[in-house]
Design a protein that fits this description.
The chain has one domain. The longest helix is centred in the first third of the chain and has 17 residues. By secondary structure, it is an alpha+beta fold. The protein has a six-stranded mixed β-sheet with strand order 1-2-3-4-5-6, covered by helices on one side. The protein has a three-stranded antiparallel β-sheet with strand order 7-8-9, covered by helices on one side. The radius of gyration is 18 Å and the shape is globular.
């Protein structure tokens, strides 16, 4: 009986480690996703998950909220992107950012609007993955999470 329990634990650990499972950094529901990543390196696997999530929701014409927290030793930024439907049937994407410091005089800025757009566009990276960019009403293409 004891060897049976040990083998189940070993199998579970192998499955979790093979999937690079990290339950503390990723939280999500069907219409929202929240991920925290360290500032470097840029375009980590977890950050790319946010780009894929937004692109899939955009293509399926679904509402969504994605939150990406980029943190360093004592500072960080929380980026929030909303895909919403307007009353006239159009969709709108908004990006907000809130910067914070974890010092003795810890201060957090209020969230500020970074950009508003009407579409998302994919941009393929050299390693074969892609990121999404925000397309404004004037046709300007802006990076997300910067």
């Amino acid at each position: 009986m004891l060897t049976h329990r040990i083998s189940i634990v070993v199998i579970l650990l192998l499955v979790l480690s093979a999937g690079n499972f990290n339950c503390f950094a990723v939280q999500g529901r069907g219409d929202s996703l929240s991920i925290a990543v360290y500032a470097l390196p840029r375009y980590s696997r977890k950050e790319m998950q946010v780009h894929r999530f937004l692109w899939n929701k955009w293509r399926r014409r679904q509402i969504a909220t994605a939150e990406l927290t980029i943190y360093a030793m004592d500072t960080g930024s929380v980026y929030t992107v909303h895909i919403q439907n307007q009353s006239d049937g159009r969709r709108i994407i908004t990006e907000h950012v809130r910067h914070y410091r974890a010092a003795e005089d810890a201060t957090a800025e209020p969230a500020t609007l970074v950009a508003t757009g009407i579409a998302l566009r994919r941009l393929r990276l050299r390693n074969g993955t892609f990121i999404v960019r925000l397309v404004t009403e004037q046709g300007k293409i802006l990076p997300l999470f910067e």
